[in-house]
From TrEMBL:
Protein name (database record): Sigma 54-interacting transcriptional regulator
Transmembrane segment boundaries: none
Pfam families in the cross-refs: EIIA-man, PRD, Sigma54_activat
GO-annotated biological processes: phosphoenolpyruvate-dependent sugar phosphotransferase system; regulation of DNA-templated transcription
Alphabetized Gene3D superfamilies for the sequence: P-loop containing nucleotide triphosphate hydrolases, Phosphotransferase system, mannose-type IIA component, PRD domain
Keywords recorded for this protein, A-Z: ATP-binding, DNA-binding, Nucleotide-binding, Transferase
InterPro entries found in the cross-reference section: AAA+_ATPase (IPR003593), P-loop_NTPase (IPR027417), PRD (IPR011608), PRD_sf (IPR036634), PTS_EIIA_man-typ (IPR004701), PTS_EIIA_man-typ_sf (IPR036662), Sigma_54_int (IPR002078), WH_DNA-bd_sf (IPR036390)
Residues of the signal peptide: none
GO molecular function terms noted in the UniProt entry: ATP binding; DNA binding; transferase activity
Domain spans labelled PTS EIIA type-4: 547-688
Keyword Nucleotide-binding attributed: yes
Domain of life: Bacteria
Length: 903
């Protein structure tokens, strides 16, 4: 036979004691002596049993203990004060209830009001228990409930049940019956749905309440009963039906419905009920966060009672499943609940912020039979790639249960979104690229990096670093899965394509690259998953207010402004500011202006100051000393550094981290990250001239300003960047950086740095006013080269019967003719337009297609007829070689470009 534990011994002793000594309790010392167990031990056990609701403590000296005969699962855990909601929604009700019980000499009658399932019965039980604990009732005081609605259609039987009856007092009464009023003598009688009591019953009830007397049916003699009556009803307090009761019963306690309680309280109830189920099953129950979310949010009209039974049903489902599948773990998912519960998840999006404060992240919780809830340690790692298989299992299971396809999709989309959130959260902060490279192939990282930058430009959005890490991990596991021939379905696909069309198109593009690189085929479902990563940038993850700002301070009229403009456009955030320091500006004024800009715009966590020359660097230090605003200076300023700083400051809030990583990027410029970025960001490189000088930092700027005044420079849309050559190594590094993002057409200055492929123009050529001839030529030739590149790039589109060289020749010659013979100024942008037009025109003509009419032909012919005819003649001479003829419409199109004439 199983050996009795000390706990069993105490319980058995109390059972026997209560049988022999009705209505009284016993103290700890006596129990300890009788069962021969150490007093401290007995005291500990009694407290435990009290917590579990198995014994009742009767206040006094010494405290007496008795078995809680009325122990139900519901009032198990301690009395009123341990009830969920005791300090919140039920606080007032409990105060009223306690007051009514303690009211001398034997408590007041009370009426419990509240919708079905709010906990009225439980409340009455707790009142009974409270009365015993406070010596108002004896420990063995009865607690009897009677639901008046059950007998509402049989008033005589109802009366007989309540007040007792003599044999033959009504049809069918074949024996004497003791009424509940009598049975509940010296205890509590709960009359539920009391408004259903027939009028004669009400009369007798009020008589009993007033006089403590009643008359059983068919009897003449009144009987006495000392019963505390608690009435309960779901009727609203102000209905006429109830007014009779509310007038007679001194205390009305309204228990609030579930929807009026806080979600924290509801969460407490949910946990409590799952613990109760766990203890019933005798096994641990592991609960998914989505289960908790749906339980928190679904429309639970039946209040706490319904919440409890819905949880019971869900637990019963998984319990059965675990038996049939012989699984050790009992694991509860939102899909295990009835569909009205699952619907709760649909409300998650709108209540996300609040719910996330209660159900945090995606950890599953484990509820054990001893009532402890903790994080489930065994949760599978999402990075193991099991997620998709689990999703599929879940879908199959739902299908088998007959869940509608539409419901499955809704539920699955929540699972999927949670997965992404977790994947992203996990990758936040704790993974760096080096670590990532242990898990992810370099090719994948490069592809993802390029994709994110590209998507960022296209969507005009910045992505957090975690998008990069998350996507790298995701792609890796997708490739593995696809290689293993595993099928996946994205139940969110339809929604993704509808809601995030742009992201989906980008993902399609990216998918072709992956397919090519890894020789696999990505199904559309997979592309849907990729798109979802891009939607993350849409979340309000960027809180500009708490991030450092970037200030670009550079010499020159608008060098800093133009850089900042590019950075703002690309990064899409307005956290970057420009300070253009004109050469003639007095340094003290410049300092004050820069300081003012910093003070005005900083957001409390520091400023990254990007400067081009030494004196500005000093400004950073001074501003920090004077204002206390943290200023970190970055010296190697270029558009790309500005972009990188702006991008990082939107994501990261720690200025030191940004500063370090930007500096690292600068020194590793040729490492993939920035290189990739430049390729993507700068599709068409802008032209620049670098000015250099060995004699002090201002001279290069002076040369720049001088060049900017030259007409042929103003006409050329060329940017001029002064560089310091005091430190040659740094100078070459800067040139290299610039080369990545700009087309350096020439270096002008007092020192020939001898760089392969970049012509040098001594400044003396310009000073002596050799008309800047060489520089002008260089610029012109550069444009010609650029037009040649355009043709090269369009090679695939060209008509194969005509070779690319012919196209180049006719395009470039036409532009030269326009400039030299007809005297038009052709900027590079206009030239590019002409080249593109001519490519299409020649192809069209050679294929025998007609040119569409040019709307401004008449205007051009009347105002520029001479030029038009000359151009037509010249072009026909060239085109004739290939049997092509150019008409007035084609010529008008070209001139329209040059003259910028639009109707
Ligand atoms: N605060 C609470 N803590 C724990 N369980 C509760 C709480 N409130 C109610 N319950 C549980 O919810 C269920 C429904 O409560 P109860 O039966 O007392 O409601 P009721 O208002 O009497 O419902 P009805 O009007 O339908 O009779 C019970 O199992 C009860 O134990």
């Amino acid at each position: 036979m199983k050996k009795l534990t000390n706990r069993d011994k105490v319980l058995r002793y109390l059972e026997k004691f209560n049988d022999r000594n009705v209505g009284i309790g016993i103290d700890t010392n006596s129990i300890a002596t009788d069962i021969e167990i150490d007093r401290a031990n007995v005291s500990k056990l009694l407290n435990q049993l009290y917590e579990e609701g198995l014994v009742i403590k009767i206040k006094g000296k010494p405290v007496l203990y008795t078995l809680n005969k009325n122990n139900t699962q519901e009032n198990k855990r301690g009395g009123f004060d341990n009830t969920i909601g005791a300090d919140k929604s039920l606080k007032k009700c409990i105060q009223q209830a306690k007051a009514s019980i303690l009211y001398p000499p034997r408590g007041l009658y009370s009426l419990l009001l509240g919708e079905t399932g709010v906990g009225k019965t439980l409340f009455a039980e707790l009142m009974h228990r409270f009365a015993i604990e406070n010596g108002i009732l004896q420990p063995n005081a009865p607690f009897i409930t009677f639901n008046c609605a059950d007998y509402a259609s049989l008033p005589q039987l109802l009366m007989a049940q309540l007040f007792g009856s003599k044999k033959g007092s009504y049809t069918g009464s074949d024996k004497d019956r003791v009424g509940l009023v009598e049975k509940a003598n010296n205890g509590v009688l709960l009359l539920d749905e009391v408004h259903r009591l027939p009028p004669e019953g009400q009369e007798m009830l009020f008589y009993l309440m007033d006089k403590g007397e009643f008359t059983p049916l068919g009897e003449d003699q009144t009987k006495k009963s000392n019963v505390l009556i608690i009435c309960a009803t779901t009727e609203e307090a102000d209905t006429s039906l109830l007014s009779t009761f509310t007038r007679r019963i001194p205390i009305s306690i309204t228990i609030p419905p579930l929807r009026e309680r806080t979600l924290e309280e509801r969460y407490g109830l949910i946990c409590e009920f799952i613990k109760v189920e766990s203890s019933r099953i005798g096994r641990e129950i592991v609960v998914s966060p989505n289960s908790l979310r749906s339980l928190l949010l679904y429309n639970c009209t039946g209040n706490v009672g319904q919440l409890k039974s819905d949880i019971q049903l869900g637990c019963a489902n998984v319990f059965l499943k675990s038996i049939s599948k012989k699984q050790k773990e009992i694991s509860l998912h939102s899909t295990d609940f009835a569909s009205h519960v699952k619907q709760g998840l649909i409300l998650y999006k709108n209540n996300k912020e609040y719910i996330d404060t209660i159900v945090d992240g995606n950890e599953r919780l484990s509820f054990s039979s001893d009532g402890i809830e903790k994080k489930y340690e065994g949760a599978q790692s999402l990075f193991e790639g099991l997620f998709y298989e689990n999703l599929e299992d879940r879908v199959q299971e739902l299908k088998q249960r007959g869940v509608e396809e539409e419901d499955i999709n809704v539920l699955m989309s929540f699972e999927i979104e949670s997965y992404f959130k977790e994947l992203i959260d996990k990758s936040q902060g704790n993974i760096n690229k080096e670590e990532l490279s242990k898990l992810v192939e370099k090719e994948t990282m490069d592809l993802v990096e390029e994709f994110i930058y590209f998507a960022g430009t296209k969507l005009n959005r910045v992505f957090p670093n975690k998008t990069f890490y998350g996507l790298c991990l995701h792609i890796t596991s997708s490739i593995e899965r696809l290689r293993a021939g595993k099928k996946i379905i994205n139940h969110n696909l339809k929604k993704v394509i509808e809601d995030y069309k742009d992201e989906y198109i980008l993902a399609l593009n990216f998918a072709t690259k992956i397919e090519k690189q890894f020789a696999i085929k990505l199904p559309v479902d997979e592309i849907g998953f990729i798109s979802m990563f891009l939607t993350l940038g849409k979340d309000p993850i960027i809180d500009e207010a708490k991030h450092p700002i970037v200030v670009v301070a550079m010499h020159g009229r608008n060098t800093a402004s133009s850089m900042v403009e590019v950075a703002q456009k690309l990064v899409g955030g307005y956290n970057i500011y420009a300070y253009d320091m004109h050469l003639d500006k007095n340094p003290q004024t410049a300092y004050e202006e820069l300081k003012e800009m910093v003070v005005k715009n900083h957001r409390g966590v520091g400023v990254l100051l990007l400067v081009d020359m030494g004196s500005l660097k000093m400004f950073g230090k001074l501003i920090e000393e004077q204002t206390g605003i943290k200023v970190k200076v970055i010296e190697m300023v270029s558009t790309i550094t500005a972009i990188e700083c702006a991008r990082k400051s939107l994501i990261e809030s720690d200025i030191n981290k940004i500063w370090e990583s930007v500096n690292e990027s600068i020194s590793n410029f040729f490492n993939s990250s920035l290189k990739k970025m430049t390729e993507v960001y700068v599709a068409q490189k802008e032209k620049i001239i670098i000015t250099v000088c060995t004699t002090g930092e201002g001279s290069a700027v002076a040369i720049k300003e001088m060049l900017e005044k030259k007409k042929y420079i103003q006409n050329e849309e060329v940017q001029i960047i002064p560089l310091n050559v005091n430190n040659l190594k740094e100078f070459y590094a800067s040139v290299n950086k610039l080369k990545e993002i700009k087309r350096i057409v020439a270096i002008v200055g007092t020192f020939n740095p001898d760089i392969y492929g970049i012509p040098y123009v001594p400044v003396s050529d310009i000073f002596e006013d050799k008309d800047g001839k060489s520089l002008k030529n260089i610029l012109e030739n550069d444009s010609i080269k650029a037009y040649g590149w355009i043709v090269e790039n369009y090679k695939k589109e060209l008509d194969s019967t005509i070779d690319a060289e012919f196209y180049k020749e006719i395009c470039i010659s036409t532009i030269e003719f326009l400039k030299k013979n007809l005297g038009f100024h052709i900027s590079e942008g206009v030239g590019t337009g002409i080249v593109l037009h001519m490519i299409c025109a020649i192809k069209r003509i050679s294929l025998g297609e007609k040119c569409p009419p040019c709307e401004v032909k008449d205007k051009i012919m009347s105002e520029y007829g001479e030029e038009a005819n000359k151009l037509k003649e010249y072009m026909n001479e060239l085109a004739g070689k290939k049997g092509i003829s150019i008409d007035d419409d084609e010529v008008s199109f070209i001139l329209r470009n040059v003259l910028q004439i639009y109707e």
